[in-house]
Design brief:
With 190 residues, the protein is an alpha/beta fold. It contains 6 helices and 8 strands; from the N terminus they run E-H-E-H-H-E-E-E-H-E-H-E-E-H. The chain is globular and about 40 Å long. The two termini are 19 Å apart. The structure holds magnesium ion.
Length: 190
């Protein structure tokens, strides 16, 4: 028995992004107005819903894993209240972006465990192992190219949300300017 899954990026899809900053407190977490409709439609069609989020504010010491857990508990409560569903699983990569590491000794100082942050597919593959996910029948939605890249590397269909102009993004199967514009089409494709 395999599971069809919808992987969701968090900031910019589930909740509004804080430009140049991080959601470090539960009060900073504000749902995107059009997220509930998409989430409900995905769950009503029997998909597993998995959150895969980069939160390098942890690695920078701006928040703790406990802060993020508290934010996600609030997120799940409000999701249940508004849609009747919650995320089935949540994966967080707290590592700092590679571009924030300084070179030393002629090499990049990467920690040994630098493997999970998107565009790595690591979090999707962790979920695949746990839930026996059929990646070929699964989807990834996000607002960063790295989300599409992670999804493409994992072998799922990819949806990119945002102002990406008329050019194509190689890793993205579908591009929509807004979540609202995407939802009707996505629901028809599921
Ligand atoms: Mg995002």
């Amino acid at each position: 028995m395999t599971t069809n899954t919808f992987f969701f990026d968090r900031d910019g899809i589930v909740n509004t992004r804080i430009m140049g900053g991080y959601v470090t407190d539960v009060d900073d977490f504000v749902f995107m107005p059009d997220f509930f409709a998409l989430f409900r439609a995905v769950k009503e069609r029997g998909f597993l819903a998995v959150l895969v989020t980069n939160q390098q504010g942890i690695g920078k010491g701006l928040m703790t894993e406990e802060d993020v857990s508290a934010i996600h508990e609030k997120m799940q409560r409000e999701l249940r209240a508004n849609t009747g569903f919650v995320f089935d699983d949540v994966y967080v990569a707290g590592e700092i972006d590679v571009s924030n590491y300084k070179e030393c000794c002629g090499e990049l100082c990467l920690p040994d465990n630098y493997v999970r942050r998107k565009p790595s597919p690591a979090m999707l593959l962790e979920a695949q192992e746990r839930w026996n996910i059929d990646l070929s029948r699964s989807w990834m939605i996000g607002d960063s190219i790295s989300d599409a890249e992670a999804g493409r590397a994992a072998g799922v269909k990819t949806i990119l949300i945002g102002d990406y102009g008329s050019g194509t993004i190689p890793a993205a199967d579908y591009i929509f300017p807004t979540l609202r514009a995407a939802t009707e089409t996505i629901v028809q494709m599921l």
